[in-house]
Design a protein that fits this description.
5 helices
Length: 147
């Protein structure tokens, strides 16, 4: 009986050493999914706020440069993300259809705001080669010009 206990000594340490990397990668995956969901919520809110600002352009008379108005709103709304404009080599594109209007739009005319953000993976892409380094997060909203 005593020989058997001596032979099994240290097995729990070996089992822990074998299982710990797998548990660590699973935990890092959960954290990574949390960061990805945070990015998705931020992009959805930013697109919605950009669309809201665009829908009120009739009141502010800034419909002629609709894309830049929406971009400024999107970038200020998602300030917790490291967003930079894709036109200057960044990671975020903001597309507004129609991009500008020569005359104030008719009330009720729809427009589309699409925000695409390339989420950078802070953890898993370094340890798991199959995991992509960047994941595109996209949100599209359709709104109508208001009074």
């Amino acid at each position: 009986m005593k020989k058997r206990m001596l032979a099994e000594r240290g097995t729990s340490l070996v089992e822990t050493a074998l299982i710990f990397p797998i548990i660590l990668i699973l935990f890092m995956g959960v954290v990574e999914v949390g960061f990805l969901l945070f990015s998705h919520v931020q992009i959805a809110n930013a697109a919605r706020e950009g669309g809201r600002k665009a829908s009120l352009c009739r009141m502010n008379w800034d419909c002629d440069d609709l894309t830049n108005v929406v971009k400024a709103t999107v970038f200020s709304e998602a300030r917790y993300l490291d967003m930079t404009d894709a036109n200057s080599g960044g990671n975020t594109t903001v597309v507004v259809q129609p991009p500008s209007l020569s005359a104030p739009p008719v009330v009720g005319v729809p427009f589309t705001v699409t925000v695409t953000y390339n989420h950078s993976s802070p953890f898993l892409s370094d340890f798991v080669p199959m995991f992509p380094a960047e994941i595109p997060v996209q949100h599209t909203i359709i709104m109508h010009f208001g009074k």
